[in-house]
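Much of the work behind modern protein science is quiet bookkeeping, done one molecule at a time. Below is the pair of lines this work produces for a single protein:

***
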Amino acid sequence: MDRAQKEKVVEELGQIFERSGVVVVARYEGLTVAQMQGLRAMMREAGGSVRVAKNRLAKIALEGKPCASIGRLLTGMTVLAFSEDPVAAAKVVEAYAKTTDKFVILGGAMGAAALDPDGVKAVASMPSREELIAQVVGCIGAPAANIAGAIGAPASSIAGILKTLEEREAA
């Protein structure tokens, strides 16, 4: 890899570190190519990405970034998992780590906050952005549904009373 290519990789990694809601660092020593492709596919479905980069270049890209604390985790065979949604990458990595003991979560960063492996697990247990939006919409829609039910209830009660009166007169 020549100098221009290294500079391009550092620039790309710098953009990843700035834009991502969460970056998770994991050790992948011993994973097969098929297992790694499976991880990439899972991450793609969740809206995230996986990147393997030279640790030295990643450390250079981290300089001055809010998530610079993950630089100490970059030793050995490491992979970076990241997503704009602060929960997506953590959920996928946590789920994948349960399937194989060759994939070990080392930690990560959520903005300027450093995460240890337990912190990544805690982030993974949080609801995703889509789930939060659904919950907010449900909370907003519930009062409207209650009002509609309250308005419609007297009309249905009157209809029931009239039906009962009609049945009494017919009998």
Observations:
- Strands lie at 22-27, 48-51, 78-83, 104-110, 113-115.
- The chain has two domains: 3-126, 127-171.
- The helical segments are 3-19, 33-46, 55-62, 88-99, 117-124, 129-170.
